Amino acid sequence: MQFRGRVSSHSSSENFDEASPTGGYVAEGFEPVAHAFQASILSGEALGAACTIIHHGETLVDLHGGWKDTSRSNRWNESDIALVYSLTKGLTGMAAAVAVSRGLFSYDEPVADIWPEFAAHGKGAVTVGEALSEQAGLAAIDFKLTLDNIGDEEAICAAIAAQKPNWTPGDYSGNHAYTLGWIASELIHRRDPAGRRLPQFFAEEIAGPLGQDVFVGLPDTFDRSRIARIDGFGMADLFIHHTTMPWPLTFEMCLPETLAFRTLNNPLVLAGPGALDNEAFWRVGQGAAGGMASARGLAALYYAFAEGGEKLGVTPEVMATLSKGHSYPCKGLKDQVLTADMYYSYGFEKPFSEWEYARTHSAFGSFAVGGSLAFCDPEDGLAYAWITNKLGTGKWDDPREKLVRDAFYACLENRS
Length: 416
Hints:
14 strands; Beta-lactamase; 416 residues; single chain; Beta-Lactamase; alpha+beta; 14 helices
């Protein structure tokens, strides 16, 4: 059924109701998902958003709506993309899974066997799996990042290798807000016969073969008019419009000596995540926060994993590893940066007792600052992506996104 402000059996998905600038498609029986999606657009809680959900090969939801920028003169169209921040980590996790499946390295291999300089300051025993599961203690680095040097992977990776860890590796995990991407890129670069870094490897081995508008490093040829611009928030908004962000994290992000500040404000320095939505950052291909994607593209990539990974050459052994998840840190799940529990695993986040975002624990995906979420659930045969360009001030379970996800699962249960 086409959807344009109301569920309809006719008319193009690109025909918008003037009073309700939303469009797209929902399968019969999933009309409540369209209404939930529309609610955040009509309320103004979301400037623009898009959502695509695929289940057992059927696209049950494909919605888009709202506006591409704060002028509210350019509507969000079905194939538009946006900066997706930490949803990029899931893309990096996909690239690592392909690299492991190709035999470039293994999850159990010490990083230092691939990258000898990484062994500095007691990091010699850290495995690839631990590093990708954000347990290596490299959330904050002393290297001062700027938009001018953030593309200098050689210098940044040298700084990461020489960095004293923020905690004893393996004891804890913590949000490697930027460093995860560079660590994965260096591992791929050192073992790939062609010497590719993450942006090229991802484009040629994942997004390209699947024909999807998902980028880690936006090419010059991409039409910039198809980019939905970010409406961000500043530090004051975390207090004025506080929602589900842990209060300890909110305060620590204002104190320069804390791990949260050193991790999350390098290179932002209190400007807020919206400051990254610029041409220079789009081009860089930062593998933890710089991805550009459509909801359709994200769902298609995750569905390749939901159906077993064969299209990308991901082996059954790697799929089983991703579905099972990495072992917890020795001292529990409390994220040393975000100050709340989080289960990081091989570049993704997994469901756990405090955040059951999918129906089964085989799921893996990533959430992002501002509320976006993308994941697959191999046991359930499901791929899900919800993205927005108006950044909320919560952690996971953004109310705008969760309303859609809850409506979808309720409809799915009724259909079963």
